[in-house]
Amino acid sequence: MTDVNGRYTINAPNRDAVLSFSFMGYATQEIPVGDRTGIDITLIEEASEIEEVVVIGYGSLPKRSVTTAISSVDAENIKEMPVGTLAESLYGQTSGIYLVQGDGQPGSAPSIRIRGTGSLTASSEPLFVIDGYPTNDAQIFANLSAENIESIQILKDAASSAIYGSRAGNGVIMVTTKKGSKGGFPVINFNATAGFQQPQRYIDVLNAAEFAQMVKEAREYRNMPVVPFFDDPSQWVETNWQKEYFRTAPLQRYELSARGAAEKINYSASLNYSDQQGIVLNSYNKRIGARLQIDTDLSKYVTVGANFAPTWTQQRRQTTTGGNTSYTDGTIADAITYPPFFPAYAPNGDYFQIQQHTSGTDLNSELTNPLSKLLETNNDYTTLRTLSQAFINIRPVKGLVIKTEFNLSTTNQKREFYRSANAPGTSRKGNKSTPDMTAIGAERSSSFDYGWHWSNTATYNHVFNNIHSLTAMIAYDVSYETAFNVRQLTRTDASYPIAFGNDLIKNVTGAYLYNGASTNTEYVSDAVLGRVNYDYMSKYLLSGSIRQDRSSKFGPSKRAGIFWSTSAGWNITEESFAKSIDWLTIAKLRASYGVNGNDRIGGNYVWTSSMSTANYAFGSGSAVNSVTGYYPGGYSNTYLSWEKNTQFDAGIELGLFKRLTVIVDWYNRLSDAVLAVTIPNLNGKATSVTMNAGEIRNRGVEIEVNAPIIDKAFKWRAGFNMSFNRNKLLSLATGNDYYGSVTGNVRNYVGRALGDMYFYQTIGYFNTPDEVRTLPRLNGSAGDIGDLRFLDWNNTQNEGTPDGTVNSWDMKNIGNNMPKFNYGFTSRMSYKNFDFSFVLDGQVGGLVYWQAYAYALNRHMENTVAYYSRDRWRGNRATGEIYSPGDKKSAVAGGNTTVALAAADRYVFKSDYLKIRNIALGYTLPRSFANKIGLKSCRVNVNAQNLWSFDEFPGYSIEAGGMGGSTSTGGTAAGQYPVPRTITFGANISF
After folding, report:
1. Rounded to 5 degrees, what angle do the CA atoms 978, 980, 981 make?
2. How far is CA 829 from CA 137, 609, 765, 826, 834, in A?
3. Labelling 727: which of 40, 123, 641, 696 has CA 20 to 30 A away?
4. What is the pLDDT of residues 68-113, one digit of tens each?
């Protein structure tokens, strides 16, 4: 053994002795001692073929023995991405997984779907298994540091995930974190990243001159008097409100880790810190995380270990969604619509407010300066999460491993919300010099969640006669979770109609009156499970698993459920007839079928009813007494059970020309849905009961192609993946042929895909008084010349039969909010000490509804999006002369507001996109130079995330549209926090 500086002393017996120098991963060197008294040696890395191992539930298998659909994500790829959360690094990496970053708020993780949406009311998010600990908390996964990741495996079909039973209906994402290497020298790594974030694009709105012209046209159209302000640019202070609202936000991230071994102890420790300021003013996310892992061999039969991973985050959020007439939220709509010829601040330092600082302009007095909301509202979440684990492995006989493992997770979160008296308030005049006590809002909440998971497994592996390989596993699991929350909220009454009398105490306790509420829930489950894997000469593969779950979430009559799977594979290249086919290196056929479940159906007590209250009067006259009575608020369904998923998968894996690997999977997934089913109200207690009452199908094809295209001095490795998914609502037991609304923009009909989009069809304008008088108008509204016309094509009885009016029956299905397919492309190149990589991802076939910007469409009292106004209808209503015929999406300035806000196809865009998701350029210092300055290695890099998006969406970021997911609002861009572009510079140093 050497010391920390590599010095060593060996007493050689004589000059003929030969010293052997070896280390894992390096070539062994043998050097005769001779007459030398000192020998300096530099080990050389040795490339060795090590069979790839795939992590599966409760164990691992050689990749050649896997018979199910499992995708792996290269840890080297994800750690180079400057992402805010680990989940964002999965974009474009593998097939079968669909991510939607619907909210770009710092610290927010994308929504994840594996093989489509399988539920109407329950969660469709996957189960996360982190070092053996199963959790539904996506934030635990999101907060993991990419530098700590050893591997990520995605279990996609039922056969691979059925071992997790009732929690795995939406697939499983398995994460293995890094550990120290036994027998290795300690390695210290330091990574530093700094950079900035900015909006990917800005929305094109009218400038001051264009807006003034539109206002003048609108006032003329409405026969309103001339306002001199709009003809006098000397009174204007032109402001780009989006530049005031957004900022170039700094980002920094640091990580220090040490991994290695000493004697029989294997250890890994890391500490990381990140500070991500938001592109929206007064928003940020700060995180401090640590991880300590240690295990040791007590003997050749027993290994024990533990790890502890706390994470502290502090997040300040801003509410960006909502309309532009709200005085509390809708800040993006404010930034788009606030008139461009007013300054951000008044001369005395106040926020410039229309209601307070203007007169005679007739602009919308309900508009408020978005800065007065952002800077006067603090919405802070402070969270401490811990994830702890302890285990013991016992190997009593060869091939048998008995393991018991205990995991504990805790989440402590505090929310402190305060909106100051300088915010606009209902008067729209709250300001720094004129505080408005009615503007103050406050709330405080605190929650404590914890859960533990105890897993016990026995795994036996043996090879019989060098032909038959058998791996058998049995296990028993038990889990417990509890969540407690308490809230304090302000309230008012007749004596105190205003909650706060002053702003001296800037939290909820400064109010005259406040009340509180609390909740406490518990959940327990256990399971018995087993699995057998059989391998005959690496040719024929069989696997089967079975699990029985019991869960307190479900009714006593259906508390236990059986989940099982079977799969088989054939390694064709192991056959004698295939040995001579030089260009075919891998050929595997596999198929699987399994059943698993989804227990996230809305809470821990859905199967039972709560108690409701009613007041009853007894007595008469002055002797009347009011008594509170209790009665069941609904029906309990003791047979309510988890949503069950059955799935068949068939796949082929090919290795061609010793370079190209191709994986193709076809799957058919059926899911039953938990719904509230309507029942007659004659029972006197409830009008619905929750039960398993629907069926959804997801069917699709996944393709993955990977290859080292060039493998010389210049190296280039690339991968491509594509996923097709077709979704259909097969049946409902509710008595209806639809789920949800039949008048909304997103509708779900039996026999069709979830997420169909319905909108009015724009067909032109009212160009003459006769057309206004005779043609159908929207809900009988007072349409006029220059207003948009919508197609009347339906009545309540027959499609294609006009009824003389335009209403919700005339909204047509124009597509779906889910893409027909999504894809990704990864590329990594290197030459000498330089490396360059990029990730592309995209999708084709979906729609997105730009709802947020219907708030500002030629209403003449507020600014508007140029897309809907520059090519507007222009004409003289009195003479009938038309100056500009318009583009059929831009109505006359000052036209009918109801028509302008109608959910029409002009607000709908294709959600197709191709995005440069990540680019990384790095340079590694020559090893000889790095060693001279005391380093093992050093790489400097520059990275770009969300660099550019090729799409037709005119909003900030295409992801903010949701692009599917929710059965009622999927594909709706409602002003969500935009996803930013990120540029970073970094250094990775090893000692």
Report:
1. 150
2. 36, 60, 55, 10, 8
3. 641
4. 999 988 887 787 777 778 888 899 999 999 988 888 899 888 889 9
The arithmetic mean of pLDDT across residues 688-705, rounded, is: 89
Q: What would the DSSP string read from start to end of 204-254? A: -B--HHHHHHHHHHHHHHTTPPP-GGGG-GGG-----HHHHHB--EEEEEE
Helix (H, G, I), strand (E, B) or coil at 836: strand
Based on DSSP, count helices (H) and strands (E) in the chain, helices before strands: 11, 45
Q: How far apart are CA 921 and CA 829, in angstroms?
A: 10
Please state, as a whole number, how many other Cβ atoms lie within 10 Å of the Cβ of residue 644: 19
List pLDDT tens digits, range 976-987. 899 999 999 999
* Residue 122, phi then psi, degrees to nearest 5: -90, 175
8 A C-beta contact, residue 858 and residue 213: no
CA 939/CA 943 separation, integer angstroms: 13
β-pair partners for 307: 293, 389
Give the closest residue to 702 by CA, choosing from 200, 236, 97.
Answer: 97
* Average pLDDT of span 758-773: 91
C-beta separation of 385 from 311 below 8 A: yes
In a 3-state reduction of DSSP, which class is residue 969? Answer: coil
The DSSP call for residue 799 is B
Q: ∠ at Cα 518 (512, 521), nearest 5°? A: 170
In degrees and rounded to multiples of 5, residue 853 shows phi and psi of -100, 10
Closest CA to 637 of 693, 692, 559, 691: 691
Q: State mean pLDDT over 934-951.
A: 92
Q: Whole-angstrom Cα distance, residue 7 to residue 39?
A: 10
Contact 595, 164 (CB under 8 A): no
Answer yes or no: is pLDDT of 58 > 70: yes
Cα–Cα distance, 967 to 977 (Å, whole number)? 21
- Give 858's pLDDT tier (boundaries 50, 70, 90): very low
Cα four-point dihedral sign 322, 323, 328, 329: positive
Assigned token pair, 262: 């000493």
Q: What are phi and psi of 838, to 5 degrees?
A: -150, 155
The CA angle 101-104-110, to the nearest 5 degrees, is: 30
Number of other CB atoms surrounding residue 28 within 10 Å: 10
> Mean per-residue pLDDT for 612-628?
78
DSSP string, 3-70: -TTS------SSTT-EEEEEETTEEEEEEE-TT-S-------B-------EEEETTEEEEGGG--S-E
Give yes or no for a contact between 573 and 585, defined as CB atoms under 8 angstroms apart.
yes
| Contact between 507 and 488 (Cβ < 8 Å) | no
Opening angle at CA 682, ends 678 and 688, nearest 5? 20
CA max distance for the chain: 119
pLDDT digits (tens, 9 = 90+) for 168-185: 989 999 999 988 776 557
Which 3-state string (H, E, C) describes 877-899?
Answer: CCCCCEEECCCCCCCCCCCCHHH
- Percentage, residues of the chain above pLDDT 70: 93
Cβ-contact 686, 678 below 8 angstroms: no
Residue 228, beta-bridge partner list? none
Q: Are 872 and 931 in contact (CB under 8 A)?
A: no
- How many CB atoms lie under 10 A from the CB of residue 742? 15
Separation between Cα atoms, residue 727 and residue 124, nearest integer Å: 13
Residues 6+ apart with CB under 8 A from 9: none
CA-CA distance, 48 to 664, in Å (whole number)? 28
Q: Per DSSP, what are the bridge partners of residue 387? A: 309, 409
Give backbone dihedrals phi and psi of 927, rounded to 5 degrees, phi first: -60, -40
R_g (Cα) of the chain, nearest Å: 32
Q: Which helix (H) or strand (E) holds 75?
A: helix 75-78
Decide which of 396 and 856 is more confident. 396
